[in-house]
Amino acid sequence: SKVHENGLACKDPAAVVAEDFHFGGLDKPGGTTSKRFGFTANQVQIPGLNTLGESHVRLDVAPGGVFPVHYHPRAAETALVLEGSVYFGFVSSYPDNKLYAKVLRKGDVFAVPQGLVHFLHNNGTTPATLYASLSSQNPGLVLLGNSLFAGALPDDLVAKTLLTDQHTVQTIKANFRRS
């Protein structure tokens, strides 16, 4: 199709089939792997959802693994624990910076308002599996650690922002370059 919406080609309605609304394979882990943080993420690709303002992902987190502190600038998130348990939470905006967090177990759901910093940590002894829904088909993902330590921000700026010294910043940046 020559018509595109949100970067994806729109399909002729006469050519739409049931497969455009189906995604199989979420019964197994897969997708993007982060050995550094101990998780895999499998983004659900459903062409029939184009322009409907939502996206979905299966997340598998090893015991002790984390999905590091991050935010989605264009989406709220709702996560359902399918297996295991995780410590999941978010921090409200400035000036309160209040922590809202809980240990979630199988069947629990937790919601994160759009744009707020959040995280999850598998503090259990077994792998955890979650299914997350986001309120945008292009939610964005900003990993705070990567933004501060894997990017091009000057060391002196990061040091002043974190109320520390440049040597500490350089030491942490070295950790981000290793993996």
TrEMBL record:
Superkingdom field: Eukaryota
Molecular function GO terms recorded: manganese ion binding
Annotated CDD domains: cupin_OxOx (cd02241)
GO CC entries: apoplast
Entry binding sites for Mn(2+): 70, 72, 77, 118
UniProt keyword annotations, A-Z: Apoplast, Manganese, Metal-binding, Secreted
Protein name, per record: Germin-like protein
